[in-house]
Structure formats: C-alpha cells, structure tokens
Amino acid sequence: MGIRFKFNLALIITTLVGLGISAMVSQKFLQDNARAEVLEMARLMMESAVAVRSYTVNEIRPLLKVQQRRDFISQTVPAYAADRYIKELQKSHEDYSYKEAALNPTNPAHRATEWEADIVAWFRNHVGEEELIGERDTPTGQQLYLSRPITIKNPDCLLCHNTPAEAPATMIETYGSNNGFGWKVNEIVGAQIVSVPMSLPLERAEETFYVVMGALVGVFALIAVILNLLLHFIVIKPVRTMSSTTDKISMGSLEVEELEVSGNDEISSLGRSFNRMHRSLTNAVKMLDETNL
C-alpha cells in the first residue's frame, strides 16, 4: 500500500465526512430560510387583510351609513373587503388564500371547515394566544398557515350579532335570521387564517442545496488534484529517486550521481543527508580498498 493510496484514502474519508456535515447543515439552513420566507409572506398577507378591514371600518362604512339603512351593502363589511382584496391577489397567486372562518357566521361562505374549526377550538382552549402557525398537506402541495383569533371586543358588534330582532332588517333580508347570532363580548367566534404554498420556496431551497453541494464537490475534487500533484512532485518523486539510488548503491554501484537537491523543506534535508551518507560510504569503501592493497 503506497503513500499515494494511503494519502488518497485519508483524503476521500475526510472529504466524505466534510460533505456529509456540509449537506446536513446547508439543507437545514436552506429549508429553515424557505419556511421563514413563506411565513414572512403569510404575515404580509395577514397584515394587509387587517389593514383593509381597518380602512373599511374607519373610512368606507361611515360614508355609506345612510344608504345602509335602506339596503344592506356588503362592501361595508370588513370581512367582505378583506375577502375581495385576497381574491384580487389570487388572480396572480392562485394558491394563496385568506379566510375569516367562524363557527357561526352570518355569511355561510365564512363557515369554518373541519380543519379550520380545529384552529378556532385551539384558540378557545388557549385563551391569550395571539397566533397559531402550522403546516398541512393539500391537493396542490404542502402549505403553511398563519392564524389569529377573532374575538368580540367591541360591544357595538352585538348590534348585528346578538339576536335577529336587534339586527338591521337589511342584513336579515340578505343573510336570513338563522346564522351569526348569539355572539358575546370577549368570545372567540372564529379565526383569521392565511394559507401560503410552500412548494416553490422548498423547491428553490432544494435547487440551491444541489448547487451548493455540487460546488463543494467540485472544490474538493480540485483540492484533491492539486494535493496529489504536490504530493507527487514534493514527496513521491524525490523519495522514488532516493530509493532507486539506494538500490544501486546497495548493489555496489558507488559511482552513481548525487541527488539534485533544492529547497529547505524536510524532503530536501533528507536528500542532503542522503548525499552525505553516499559520499561517506564511497570514501570508506575507497579507504578499505587502499588498505587491502
């Protein structure tokens, strides 16, 4: 087993260990970054929906207060405004969604599905929690959801959601008197839920992972070639020359030329020591020959 083989064996083992550690660290880092990117998008959507709701309540609803007495105007409902905003966004990002899911909504379109009802139940069981983040599998791929509780904090909301008798007649004409009543102050009636697809960021993270690993493999391969060249010219070639010269001397050929030595490294020092030994051995043999004569 030669020096080159041992050296490359150690280099291969070291490289594989280094690549393995790099793969684990970089994959986790890239996936965490992808999830952070998705969560940031979900937060942006949530804050945008909240901003639309606030704008509707503070600026749109007061302007249509008189008309609201004659006809129910959906555009004055904060949830409707936020829903329309998201529908416009879905024209270019169809997998993004926002829903104000309620257990007993006025508008049946806002009724919570089974998994959304679980989120509302979680908030009811964890009063004081302001946010719930999770992931779920869908027919279009994995999605991250960001949810916040809908809590009745303003008593004025009960004007529409206490009893059908107290609700505006125009609202009853639009949605009927069977849904959206019996709400109470400080009750968690639903949840704002934003869903954002994770497939694209995760695919990008995976592509980046393969690019990084490919670059690392290329770097390690280049280093291996350079180290092998250095090993050949600095160590193996001089040692082979010494070995060949030693074989000739051991067979009685004392007239072989001395090694060409340059540099100040350990191999050069070994070469100079070898030349001194060669000269000393040659002189000793000559002295013995002269004595015998």
What does this entry look like structurally?
The protein has 293 residues and is an alpha+beta fold. The protein is 62% helix and 12% strand. The protein has eight helices and four strands. The chain has helices at 3-63, 65-70, 78-89, 114-125, 158-161, 169-175, 199-250, 266-292, and strands at residues 97-102, 132-138, 141-151, 188-197. Strands 1-4-3-2 form a four-stranded antiparallel sheet, sandwiched between helices. Helix 1 (3-63) packs across helix 3. The two termini are 46 Å apart.
Query: Beta fraction of the residues?
Result: 5-15%
Strand order of the largest sheet: 1-4-3-2
SS summary, helix count:
8
* Helix/strand class: alpha+beta
SSE series: HHHEHEEHHEHH
What is the global morphology?
rod-shaped
Q: Give the overall average pLDDT.
A: 82
The N- and C-terminal alpha carbons lie at a distance of 46 Å
Number of strands: 4
- Which consecutive residue ranges, at least 5 long each, have pLDDT under 50? none
Biggest pleated sheet: 4 strands, antiparallel
Helix content class: 55-70%
Which value, in Å, is the CA radius of gyration? 40 Å
List keywords for this structure.
single chain, 8 helices, 62% helix, 293 residues
SSE layout and pairing:
Blueprint: H1 3-63, H2 65-70, H3 78-89, E1 97-102, H4 114-125, E2 132-138, E3 141-151, H5 158-161, H6 169-175, E4 188-197, H7 199-250, H8 266-292
Antiparallel strand pairs: 1-4, 2-3, 3-4
Helix pairs in contact: 1-3, 1-7, 7-8
Quick synopsis:
This protein has a domain at 35-198. By secondary structure, it is of the alpha+beta class.
